[in-house]
Every structure is written in structure tokens, then in C-alpha cells.
Amino acid sequence: MYDVLIIGAGVIGGMVARTLAKYDLKICILEKENDVAMGATKANSAIVHAGFDAKEGSLKARLNIKGSAMMESVCKELGVKYKNNGSLVIGFNDDDRATIEELKKRGDKGGVPALRVLEKDELLTLEPNLSRNVTCALYAPSGAIVCPYKLTVAAIGNAMDNGAELICNFPVTDIEKIDGGFMVKSGEKSVSSRYVINCAGLFSDKIAAMVGDESFSVHPRRGEYILLDKECGGILNHTVFRTPSKMGKGILVSPTVDGNLLLGPTSVDIEDKDDKTTTAEGFQKIIKEANENVNGLDIRKTITSFCGLRAVGSTGDFIINSPVPHFINAAGIESPGLSASPAIAMYIESLLRESGLMLNEKSDYEPTRPAMHRFREASIQEKNEIIKKDRAYGKIVCRCETVTEGEILEAIRRNPKPRDLDGVKRRTRAQMGRCQGGFCGPYIVELLAREQNIPFEDVTKSGGNSYINLGKTKEAAKND
Amino acid sequence: MTDLVIIGGGPAGMSAAIAAYECGIRDILILERDEHLGGILQQCIHNGFGLHKFSEELTGPEYAYRYEKRVIELGIPYKLGTMVLDITKDKVITATNAEDGVFQINAKAIILAMGCRERAKGALNIAGSRPAGIYSAGTAQKFVNMKGYMPGRDVVILGSGDIGLIMARRMTLEGAKVHAVCELMPYSSGLARNIEQCLNDFSIPLKTSHTVTEIHGKERLTGVTIARVDENRKPIPETSEFIPCDTLLLSVGLIPENELSRSMGVDLSGITSGATVDQDRQTSIEGVFACGNVLHVHDLVDFVSEEAEIAGKAAAEYINGMVETTVNIPIKTDGKIRYTVPQVITKSKDVTVFFRVSDVYKNVKITVKSGDDVIVSKKKVRVAPGEMESIKLRASDIEKRKELIFSLEVV
Q1: Whole-prediction pTM value?
Q2: ipTM of the predicted structure?
Q3: Rounded distance, CA B100 to CA A388, Å?
Q4: Chain A to chain B Cβ contacts (< 8 Å)
Q5: Nearest chain A Cα to B134, which residue?
Q6: Which residues of chain B have pLDDT under 50?
Q7: Domain A1-82+144-217+314-371 - what CATH class?
Q8: CATH of B326-411, one of 1.10.3430, 2.40.230, 1.10.3470, 2.60.40
Q9: Residue among B34, B40, B149, B222 with most chain A CBs within 10 A, to mutate
């Protein structure tokens, strides 16, 4: 029997696992997909919000400001990139200015540091590629960017290095109350635990209902994005938001920690929690609004486009509570969930403590996870040192992002181990450049097959039935 | 200091190296990122290579081997598995491989011969899901020809570039069913002979003025929606049609791989995406030459080899100090001629100018003028963007000209 089961290996589940891993607890993370960070965590704006957006006094506001303040040191411990690039909410008219003043007041009150309203001249000096039609902006120097899936991989990897377990392809189908805890089932398989923490994102309402909590629901809100080539990454330094209005929050334009430029998201409520399709209308909206905000965008430099689903809770705030003893919800974690994630984990830790879970610190707990080797960012001397130790670091596999075979093998062998092409991509950036794996994809398939000791044709793009190849030549057609 | 460093050991790099060697240069180094010489030809196991150069029909690997053999016979040094990370405008090359680690070379002259890559799906912004089963045609070719695996059974191909056409036939021969080749433009961008031999001979429909508007399937591709497009290339929703398939191959354009050229400061053409060069294939940086698909995308490898010989000879002359610029004649084009290579002439000698047209035209007259003087003109029954054209200019024709204008008129 585990002490704590965490359902969902997104950024919330990952942060919770890592926070609890410092204690003498038997922890297991259950994930329905083939890898971690597969839900809202892998497709969002990748922003650490300063914290002026949410209503004063809400969990969203409190945990955002607290989480945002923790993020830099968390990223440092986990060896993932964090860039404090600052954010701007730009305004085009008097209504926008009024909203900006309002946001500033709210942020000041909540304790968001150093907020300032910039006038046009100063704004355009700071960001010369902004539209000439801007009139003012709210400048939040504490705004930052991270890579949400790398953060999650690192958090879960760190938890696993400290003893936590991870079970993938385990979609929870039922939860049964048993003596001293819960039995969590996935079809015929089951695991039991004294405590259960529901970090199931879009499906957290279904999980809560399995223990009789039907007090809330979660629905999907589609957000489509376009990612531009690194050639375009230098257009902006800050994350640029539109002033929120009756028409919604609008399209943001932001650099990413890896140097690309991200445009999006759209915001459309839908029914199907699995519908991550992009739409022609979505592309049009993103392109139109992004061009209103920023000059010089070249949409032909699109690397990829994607869609994420926000887990919108029915209460309007994060839903973090314990509806039945020893069961904790972390539900409705939409934006600013990523920013708040370290604080949410601490909050859950306090709920566990209150409910009587003994939290004794382990003597051998290791809070840091060494950063992955990043060949392209190393100096020549550093490169040669690592190649001397392992010649695989001298061989470039992904030419667009300059990723070596050494880095790919390191990712494949490290917790949490990727089992598919997309998993390698998220950890190493191999296949994430201009050619989108056209050149290196077949070789990475080979490495995955070899390292996992599985046949070449069993390698998938992202688990399930997403096979890359359908058999050997001359054989595939015979199977019909 | 190395006299000549050649970036890329494909057909362009090998041919340039041999040409430079034959002009007396001995201190040559070819850097190749793959584990063998030959570049993309290694996976092009179909025939049709070498008709111009050797008057024979060779497969890709056979064609490559003729050059590889010569490189080895001449003892031209090369390093495999070696990726160039950076080149400065002072010609300092930083590269890496597993044996040497990261190393730097100072070169007297450099020939850029990195080839091209396929345009990926991302650039197309096709709506729908992102399942497995979507590959560029070249990636599928690698799986089938090099690895011996089938990326799919029921195939739709978007784009009618030559690799797409070749793969339509290849997949069919391997037992897959190719349901359609959709081409956004009203004409194919592939060679006429490939349309005949790869599609028509196998009754594979070519749907011109069609595109893929939506991708279906969560894990593996389950189908695509295709639609006819109007004259502005916008899909017409009423013509939408769902085709069940497990594989979508993309053959939607090739892009010269000029990241290194760009970062070293070589002037690039917005049209070819390759360097702007003179008749010697010298770029805007003295002593840096470019040839093959990194310069502009060719239809036939035979022409790549020829172009690389020009660059190899010129690099040898440069290394031997035979630099003479006698003229400076830019070549301009009207809208119907898309681009020329070279874009400028700097020596008074015979020059063959290669060019592509921007649309399919019938019964045309192509004229090279300087001011009101017509220098050369030639008639063609049909020209198409997929077929490179050329015109020979004699030294006596171009002497004392300020500029040359290439134009096309339908007669």
C-alpha cells in the first residue's frame, strides 16, 4: 500500500510529487497517457504570470503571486530554464487604459512587485516592434517564462530519483474506499494507498465523482497556438498581452525560453475533452490579432501549430479541498496554474499535514536534479570535456536544434524515461526545429527501439496506436 | 590553414572537390554530417540519374558511387559524421564529431554544399489533429529504402514535388495504395517524366488545384479532408471530400539549408533562399562559394554536379590567387522569370545562366536584353516552374553591358 497516490502527471501532479518526495512516504503517480505532461501542461502559454489578473483574495491570486515568487529557485533546483523577461499588457485606447489602471491597483494590493504604467514613448523604446498604435501598457518586471513540460519532466524525475514511482498508461476507471485508504483501479489493474490526490486536470471532476464528490465540474476550453522559428524569436523580449476586454483576453505574443516566438491562444469552449484539433478560424484569429499587436511577424516561419485544452472549473477559482477524508482535489487548475504550481503543491502539503499524514523528512533527500547536458549552449571547452567522457556527445542527431546522440540517450535513460518519439522531443528538442524530425526522426526511432529493446516497428509517436511504421516492406500489404 | 574546406559530401560537395583537385589543389577537406558520402542520393534507389552526365540511367547510389570512387582514388580527405556548427566570415569553421570532438579549421576558401531540406507540415498550418502517420516524402523514403519499414498502407500525398511523385510509385510497388496526389497549384511542380512514370503508369490520380484542409485521427491518422481551391488558392468548402487513409506524405517544397550561410553573413536571395552568386558561384563573401541544392533547388543531380564543377574550379583559381573582376553586370528579371543563377556577372567570359519561370506558359519567347539591345532570344513550346531552363551567353555578348534583363513573353 502506498502512502500517497497522485492521479495525473501534469505540472500539478509533478510539483506535488516532488514536494512530498522529501518526506519518508511511499509515493506513486498514475498517468493515463504514455508519458508525463501530456494534458494542459504540454500546450499552454508557458508563462509565469506576475499575478495581477485574478480577483483579489481568490486562491488563483494568492497562489499565483506566491508560486511566481518561488518559480525561479524551483527551476534552478530542477535544472530547467527560467527567464525573467517581464510582461506587458498593452492598451490601444481609453477603455484599455482604464482596465490597465484597474489591473495595476489590483496587483499592487495583492503584492505584485514593481508594477508600472508605461506611456507610448517609453513602451516603444522598450519594445520597438510593438504596433505604433499602442498608447500605454502595464509593465510587470516579475513576469517570466519557462518550458512547462520540461519543468514537469524535471519535477517528476526529481521525485522519482527520491523514490517516487510512476505508472503510465493507467487511466483511472474507479476508486473504491477500502480499510485505511483507497483502491484505485484501471480496468483489471489496481493500486491502493492511504491518501489520494486528484491532479487529473480536465478529468478531475470524473475522478472526484468516483469518491462521491459531485460538487464541481470541469470543461475544456480550446486554446490554439502558432509557434514561429527561432529566426523570429528576437522580435520581442517581453511577453506581450492584449488588455482584457469584453471580447476576452486576446492573443498574446511571447518569446519562449528556447528562443522561438509563441502566438496564441484562442479561447473557445467545447464539449469533447479529447478534441485537441486546430481550426482554420483559429489560425486566422491568431494571425490577425498578433499582427495588430506586433510588427514584423512572418507567419511563413511557422514551425508548428497546436491546440491545448484548459481545464476550466465550474467555480471560477482553483478547487483545492478535501471533500472526503484522505482525498484531496487539485482541480480546475487553469491559468495561472503553471505559475501557481509550486505554491499549489505547498498548499496541498499543508492540507495533508492537517489531515494527519506524518511528514518526516528523509535524510537522503536530494532537492536538485542536474540539468540535462545542452550541447548547443556549452562552450567549446565544455563540449570537448563531455565528448571525451562519452563520444556520443560529439555526434549531432538533430541538425536543426543541434542535439547530440549523447543528449538523446541521456534523456532516454533518465527518469521519467520517454518511450516514444514525442517524449524524446519534449526532453531534448530533437525534432522540434525547422524540419520537424524529417531528418532525425528515423534515427531516433532506432535509438528508442534499441534502448527499450523493442522492435523498430513498435516505436510510437506518443503511445497507444500512434505507430510510426506499420510493418516491414513487402509485408505490410499482406496483412490486409 | 586548409586551402579548401567543402561543407557537405553529397553530389555537389564531391564534384566540387574533384574539380578543385583537377585544378591542382591538394589541401582539401570535405566535412560530411552523415556516416557516408553521397548525401540524399543514398536513399534515392530509383533510376534516372546521370542521363545528361554519363548518358546512362543510374540509380542514386550508383551515381553517388562514381564520385565517391573518384574522391577515394584521388585521396581527397573527408570526415564523416561531422557537423559544422559555425563558420565565421573570416572562414574559421567550427565542427564536431565523435572522434575529434569540437575542432576549428581556418580555410583559404570554402564551398558551401549543404543541400536542402523538405518543407515540413508546420509551415502549412493544416487544421485538425496531430496524429502519427504524417511524414515528408523524403522521411518516408528513408524508412522504406534505408530501413526496410513501411510508414503506411493507405496513402494520400500532398504536393507533387519530385520526391512525392517518386514515393507515390515506391509505396505502390511496396504494396501500399496511393489514393491521390493533391497539388495546390493548377500544375505539378514535378518533372513531366515523373508524372508519366510515377503516377500515370500506376493510375494514381493527380488532383491539381486541390489541398488538404483537415487532418483526422487521434493516435494514428484515420483520414484527410481534401478540397478544390479557387484561383486565390483558397479551399472551396462545397468541394470537400473525406479520404480514409493512414498516411499523409508531404512533398510541398524544398528549402536550401542556409542557416550556416546566414550566420556567417552571406547575402541570400529572398527568392531562391540560397546565396546570391556570380558566374563562378562565388557568394557575397570573397572566397566563399556555393553550389548544388544549397544554392538553388535543382531538378536533376546532373546539373548539380556541373554547377559544383564551376564552383570547384573557381575556388581553385581563388586559392591560386587568380582573382580578376573585370565587370559588374547584375542580371534582372521580369515577373514571369522568377530567378536566375548567377544573379551577377563579374568576368568577361562565356556564361550559362540558369533560370526558372514563375508559372506554366505555352509558346513563349525568352529574351535577354541590355537596354533596348536584344542579346539572345529563344522560343519554347512550353515552360513550367518545375523545369529549370538555361541560356548561354558569350563573352562578346556581355562585355560593356551595364545590366542584363531576362524576360518572357507569350507569343
Answers
A1: 0.95
A2: 0.94
A3: 9
A4: 155
A5: A468
A6: none
A7: alpha beta
A8: 2.60.40
A9: B149
